[in-house]
Amino acid sequence: MSCKESSLVCYDIIERKFHRITKSWKAGIKVTMEKLFQKQRQLDTYIEEKRNVTAEEVLEEKLLAFIVETGELANEVRCFKFWSSKGPSDKAVILEEYVDGLHFLLSIGNTLSEKPEFVQSENTTEEGTEKEKTKAFLELTNLTSALYNEKTGNAYQETFRAYISLAGLLGYTWEDVLEAYESKNQENYSRQDNNY
Questions:
Q1: Residue 167 resides in a domain
Q2: Count of CB atoms situated within 10 Å of the CB of 13
Q3: Pfam families of this UniProt entry (predicted)?
Q4: What CATH number is attached to the domain comprising 153?
Q5: Is residue 4 part of a domain?
């Protein structure tokens, strides 16, 4: 049974939202993903050399790190916290958590030699409801588990697509994500230089 079939209802909601978001991206600028994967590969190589590890040796650690970062992101979004009156964290904090996860997801793609060709940039966003966000996080958890178990191109592509779709559900444009990624990428180099 594929990841899709195991949680069809959640996946269907994400799939419909993904199609609405990507439809709006068609009016935007085509952004080549190769550049992001190259930047991540450079950072990964820098870290691997500094820490004396190979990408393959730390693949499971990267998968766990992605799961943890996704959990930290959900914690800042607070969409599942029905028991609390406190709203979500500041949009900048949420975006930073999102790109933390993106760093690990790109790194996993590099290790598995999986790279989506491009993502079209959106000009508008359609932020999801709290329920849609919660279901998106749950589906991402399922897809990441499948990626851990299968380590296939298809499992990676589904996980990547769900994560990119999540940015739109959270109300961010692809330009927001790219700008935040660039900033965090530089910060990650600085952290390594300072023995983080």
A1: yes
A2: 18
A3: dUTPase_2
A4: 1.10.4010.10
A5: no
Please report which helix (H) or strand (E) contains residue 120, including its range: strand 118-120
Dist CA 144 CA 127 (whole Å): 23
Q: What type of residue is 140?
A: L
What's the domain count of the chain?
Answer: 1
Q: Tell if the pTM clears 0.85, that is, is over it.
A: no
Q: What is the 3-state secondary structure (H, E, C) of 36-79?
A: HHHHHHHHHHHHHHHHCCCCCCCHHHHHHHHHHHHHHHHHHHCC
Token look-up 């068609």 returns: 26
Each residue's pLDDT, cut to its tens digit, for the chain (196 residues) gives 444 554 555 555 555 555 555 554 443 434 567 888 999 999 999 999 999 999 999 999 999 999 999 999 999 999 999 999 999 999 999 999 999 999 999 999 999 998 775 554 444 457 889 999 999 999 999 999 999 999 999 999 999 999 999 999 999 998 899 999 999 888 888 778 877 6
Domain coverage including residue 41: 23-193
